[in-house]
TrEMBL record, chains A, B:
Belongs to the glycosyltransferase 34 family. SUPFAM superfamilies: Nucleotide-diphospho-sugar transferases (SSF53448). This is Glycosyltransferase 7. It is found in: Golgi apparatus membrane. It comes from Eutrema salsugineum (Saltwater cress). GO terms for biological process: galactoglucomannan metabolic process; galactomannan biosynthetic process; mucilage biosynthetic process; seed coat development. The keyword Membrane applies.
Amino acid sequence: MVSPEASHFQSSPMAKYAGARTRPVFCFSDVVLFLGGAFMSLILVWSFFSFSSISPNLSFSAVKTDESTKCSRGIDMRYDPTDPVFYDDPDLSYTIEKPVKGWDEKRRRWLELHPSFIPGSENRTVMITGSQSGPCKNPIGDHLLLRFFKNKVDYCRIHGHDIFYSNALLHPKMNSYWAKLPAVKAAMIAHPEAEWIWWVDSDALFTDMDFTPPFRRYRNHNLVVHGWPGVVYNDRSWTALNAGVFLIRNCQWSMELIDTWTNMGPVSPEYAKWGQIQRSIFKDKLFPESDDQTALIYLLFKHREEYYPKIYLEGEYYFEGYWLEIVPGLANVTDRYLEMEREDATLRRRHAEKVSERYGAFREERFLRGERGGKGSLRRPFVTHFTGCQPCSGDHNKMYDGDTCWNGMIKAINFADNQVMRRYGFVHSDLGKTSPLQPVPFDYPDEPW
Amino acid sequence: MVSPEASHFQSSPMAKYAGARTRPVFCFSDVVLFLGGAFMSLILVWSFFSFSSISPNLSFSAVKTDESTKCSRGIDMRYDPTDPVFYDDPDLSYTIEKPVKGWDEKRRRWLELHPSFIPGSENRTVMITGSQSGPCKNPIGDHLLLRFFKNKVDYCRIHGHDIFYSNALLHPKMNSYWAKLPAVKAAMIAHPEAEWIWWVDSDALFTDMDFTPPFRRYRNHNLVVHGWPGVVYNDRSWTALNAGVFLIRNCQWSMELIDTWTNMGPVSPEYAKWGQIQRSIFKDKLFPESDDQTALIYLLFKHREEYYPKIYLEGEYYFEGYWLEIVPGLANVTDRYLEMEREDATLRRRHAEKVSERYGAFREERFLRGERGGKGSLRRPFVTHFTGCQPCSGDHNKMYDGDTCWNGMIKAINFADNQVMRRYGFVHSDLGKTSPLQPVPFDYPDEPW
């Protein structure tokens, strides 16, 4: 009898397209070399048009275009030439059941036909998050989800990312923690302009609104998760990484990973066996069903040579961090950052929200250069993850009572919101209190409150 | 004794800065004429830098910049020169209590110092919405608010607008329907790159994800609301316009309007009297307290020559529309749009979400050119407003039962979501059912389901 593993890898498209996997990932410079001249002339055309009221739309000049939506992003949202692309291929499907082949070429071709999307495509990121389609069982669950979502929208606005909220299953069997995979695959196809898809669980929030992930560090990797190689390969724990937050490169390797990953999930005829296999290797796994996190650790553990070179286990900062480790320290972090602001007037300077990255970059350079984050650090935690709290169902880990979770969430959300609202002239003077806000004095915190 | 009206206008900054009001509104072309040469050279510098890996950051080259966030929007989010701007003025306040003076010059100066924000500034829009800071009384209230917010985020992603969710009071007295004014003012100051601030109530949603407001039509106006002059000036009704959705130009005129408007609200010593005045003129007003909507109608009615020329009462389409008028017709609208898609293959073509505007523009040109929207039209309603439903408190108008509201909302939300999810390969086959979604067949709806 064929073992689930074997049959799993037989059923995987990876064997067939091994070539694609070893090929270097979709590369910005290729396209640029190929299109340099064309794009240069295009940008010249633009810079001309932006001084006139003539529509710069090249494909559709009959229709009046709206300058605001087009130019404000430097991309032409109204240009889609009729040249055939993967969208015109009847065999290409957004669904999780059908593998996508030759995705790198397909994406490159699309980008070549949409040159206005080339600048910035190197690390352009679309964030995906989501939750269940109906009301939460926990009476304050949806209120918390709303605030978690607002926090992500704030982060994306400050850094120029698009964000998509998924609240419906794309496959009836791929539910709970498996629901993210169909959503991520569909987003990869719907966003060929994006190099990265950033999945962030609904119960995770950004607690450093200035920080930007070190994309350079990930340039040779296709998946970034918070994790520790030693715990994967020595301790064999199902918590060796956290699959609730990940950056996945929009490329063929990722398409194939998602297929392989999905084949350990509820859609697989071998689903039950995968649960047994996971528990047999990762003894601390709490429940019998195969889950997406243990499945990913399994791939790293069992097929190290194949996956480890492309999966970056980020442990140098809180790519996502355990809330119980973080929340008690927020007061000290606040004090330290206020100290930086007292020390350097540049950090006290009021500014347009849109140029906030300039001040974040300055703080990194002046005060945080080379400083690791994570446990015990006074660096703002980048992402705080309320693992075990289950805000929507309310079925939180019995280790702590619900109020510890809900109060911790409000505190962390307001800690993050203070970084946002400063740019609107206000702050929460008490992290436990959401409203009303207090106006920020000019030159705060140098000038006493 | 000074009448509240008189004292109101004495206390208004408008008298003092009448000059500012009559001055033509902040104009894109002024800046362009002034900066044409400078910007042209800058864009040339950019187009060069975008082909190299050298940091194009002019102000802060010591710090590595993240190409993705900078280039992807064609704006430099890391450039903020040290030249003094209004943010450096200790007397400039974000709060509703203190008037802002000379805003047009201040904004123009900021834009001159941030030339990368000039292209697209003509109609660049930031959307603001929000709700109360705590959980809703209605058990499904927060779930509905979450879905209403997702809908706005979807619309903004498709059209390249930023969006900000306000869930805390910026002034303790400015609550409920008055809370929007401090939020809008703070957003105007935090977003000098934006020409328009678009307030949209939490219980309003976009039911045409393709439609873009006809900004050209509003070029000589500073405020756009859904309303009817005849009802303001003849019928004298407090429903002559709806203040739950408005576009307000980020200019000095608007700053002064907000001051004047606010002076009829809870912060005013004359608050009680304003309620009486409003009821004495607008007999159908339901409650004694002064409200923001009647206050705005009052300004149009009482000071017509001053406000009517600058306030566009949009009645040609559902700038916002009453849900009871809209929801029963959604099935017919769906059929009509499917018919268009059967008729023209361009509308059936799958495409990247980012270029959706090209197809929306095509549909306008091919099938909807010059067609009015609004009551009785089979044009998709642009914004459906669940006035009277009170999703959060649950205290809906007794004219209809709650389920009519909640079911109508789910139906309208899924109607809108179908326009979004098509670009991710899925649809709700039944508007009453949120999840799971159904995969869309290739060439749908030409190919039978």
